[in-house]
Specification:
Blueprint (H helix, E strand, L loop, with lengths): L9 E5 L4 H12 L3 E6 L2 H11 L4 E5 L5 H15 L4 E4 L15 H28 L5 E5 L12 H21 L5 E7 L5 H7 L3 H11 L9 H12 L10 E4 L3 H4 L10
Parallel strand pairs: 1-2, 1-4, 2-3, 4-5, 5-6, 6-7
Helix pairs in contact: 1-2, 1-8, 3-4, 4-5
Length: about 260
């Protein structure tokens, strides 16, 4: 008999319309969760929800940079399902690819607003809802190998992911007292629509470039692998794991650090 690892749980997933978010929506729903799929790409978001073809997934528009929209999304979820068990704060952008000498500070601020401030807003309001309902919830954020290694991504992106990892650790310390777990996932280069558009590359080109620099050979990192990591952290199998940065990079950040040779993916 199949075990549904998130049976009856209510999850909010941001950045849910494509890439890692889309794969996670599908996997969470397959494992019994009710999912509020959040994004600003309305057409794609509705397609994700419709493709699952059940009452398990509801698309909801929300720009995480706007705290009022985040708060409204929490209220929407509570009205529909009565509680929030899981938050997967996955929304993010790569931002400007310019070097530090040509850094556009307006673009830098946009990256920080989405990747850090947006995550902070979702954690803040989701945690408030969990505490009010006495839910021992799970909060997960998508960081990156760029959260711990310089030179693997653009300046703004790398800075934002370092900051996000700090936010995860800080929130873990505060929310543990309420029984809420806070963790992050740091993937290596994945061929998502976001990365392909940012670098003007085809998916196979991103995968080829990442694989050529990867430590673990014989497998290509896919968005579904990151979704599976999120499923683990969201489930009761990770009931005593908090403050952890689950690195999904095939050992790259442990045994190799050659940023000068890394592609910007």
């Amino acid at each position: 008999m199949t075990k549904f690892r998130l049976e009856g749980k209510v999850a909010i997933i941001t950045g849910a319309a494509s890439g890692i978010g889309e794969e996670t929506v599908k996997l969470f729903a397959e494992n019994g969760a009710f999912v509020i799929a959040v994004d600003i790409q309305d057409e794609l978001g509705h397609k994700v929800a419709d493709s699952i073809g059940s009452d398990k997934v509801t698309y909801h528009h929300c720009d995480v940079r706007d705290e009022k929209q985040v708060e409204e999304t929490i209220h929407f979820t509570l009205e529909k399902h009565g509680c929030i068990d899981i938050l997967f704060s996955n929304a993010g952008i790569i931002g400007s690819l310019s070097g530090i000498l040509d850094l556009d500070l307006n673009e830098f601020e946009k990256t920080m607003a989405t990747n850090v401030v947006g995550a902070a807003a979702t954690i803040k309001h989701a945690a408030r809802a969990m505490i009010a309902k006495k839910i021992r919830g799970s909060i997960i954020c998508t960081t990156s190998v760029a959260a711990s290694i310089g030179g693997t991504g653009p300046n703004g992106y790398t800075t934002s992911k370092h900051a996000l990892l700090g936010l995860v650790k800080s929130a873990c310390g505060e929310l543990g007292g309420y029984g809420i777990r806070v963790n992050s996932i740091s993937p290596f280069g994945v061929a998502t629509p976001l990365s392909c558009i940012a670098y003007n590359l085809e998916p196979h080109e991103v995968e080829s470039s990442s694989s050529s620099h990867a430590n673990l050979k014989g497998i290509v990192l896919k968005a579904k692998h990151v979704a599976e990591a999120a499923l683990f952290l969201a489930s009761d199998e990770a009931v005593y794991i908090s403050g952890h940065n689950l690195v999904v990079d095939g050992g790259f950040s442990v045994v190799r650090n050659t940023p000068s040779a890394m592609p910007d993916v």
